[in-house]
From TrEMBL:
Gene3D superfamilies: 3.40.1360.10. SUPFAM superfamilies: Toprim domain. SMART domains: TOPRIM. PROSITE patterns: TOPRIM. The lineage of its organism: Bacteria, Bacillati, Bacillota, Bacilli, Bacillales. This is Toprim domain protein. It comes from the Bacteria. Residues 4-92 form the Toprim domain.
Length: 113
């Protein structure tokens, strides 16, 4: 596996939120909602040698996406927001930064204060 990492999120707002926190260049891919196994394979084909991180909402759609990833990409690492926040988009920056830092991503220090 290469040193390159990819984070998969559900939507554009999630992508923007994570990109703001990260210091390092990380490819962030949006599923734009529920996807089929075929669409997922198509979306991630260019990244098959990358380390995959799945960071989706703590709701029913997010769980469906996780189940699909666990079946189709069992090596993917799953990051979880707290259920109280439900969505990546509504999770406070400090919480997101802590979750990403826990997965060894480089974070802008101002988000850890």
């Amino acid at each position: 596996m290469s040193d390159e990492r990819v984070i998969i999120v559900e939507g554009g707002s999630d992508k923007k939120r994570l990109a703001r926190i990260l210091v390092e260049p990380v490819e962030i891919i949006c599923t734009n909602g529920t996807v089929s196994p075929y669409r997922l394979e198509e979306l991630l084909a260019p990244y098959e040698e990358h380390e995959l991180f799945v960071f989706v909402d703590a709701d029913e759609d997010g769980e469906k996406t996780r189940v699909l990833f666990k079946r189709e990409f069992p090596a993917a690492i799953h990051l979880y927001t707290e259920k109280v926040y439900r969505e990546v988009e509504t999770t406070p920056y400090k919480v997101l930064a802590t979750i990403l830092q826990g997965a060894d991503f480089k974070i802008r220090p101002e988000f850890l204060i």
